[in-house]
Design goal:
Layout lengths: L1 H19 L15 H4 L7 E13 L2 E6 L2 E6 L15 E10 L4 E10 L5
Parallel strand pairs: 3-5
Antiparallel strand pairs: 1-2, 1-4, 2-3, 4-5
Length: about 120
């Protein structure tokens, strides 16, 4: 009886442990690719996806992002770089949240991916 109770407890603990490591593996929300000039029309806190280049560091964690349509300031926290080195000649894709103040629009980058076949 004692062994059965222990086995039930251990199997329940194993289920809880494996469930805590589980993650969704399937399609996720698709964000259409937009340009810098289209960011202005987005609402505050909207999630957007852009492709272009980080051309200049303005101050720590703040950069100038450029695509064919224009430039915009982006904020990228160090962990978002995921230990990748990015130069102004590296094309990147960013997934970012629009940050609108009464007279300024910028992006807070949540995900950065190097393009052009780079890891």
């Amino acid at each position: 009886m004692k062994q059965t109770a222990i086995a039930v407890i251990l199997s329940g603990a194993a289920l809880l442990t494996s469930a805590s490591w589980a993650a969704f593996d399937g399609p996720s929300k698709v964000y259409p690719l937009i340009s810098v000039t289209e960011v202005e029309a987005q609402t505050d806190d909207a999630i957007v996806k852009l492709q272009g280049y980080l051309i200049k560091e303005l101050k720590p964690e703040h950069y100038l992002f450029k695509d064919d349509s224009g430039e915009i300031q982006v904020e990228i926290d160090a962990p978002v770089f995921n230990q990748q080195t990015v130069t102004p000649s590296d094309k990147v894709e960013i997934l970012a949240e629009v940050d609108k103040d009464w007279n300024h629009v910028s992006l807070e980058v949540e995900k950065l991916t190097l393009l052009d076949g780079k890891p």
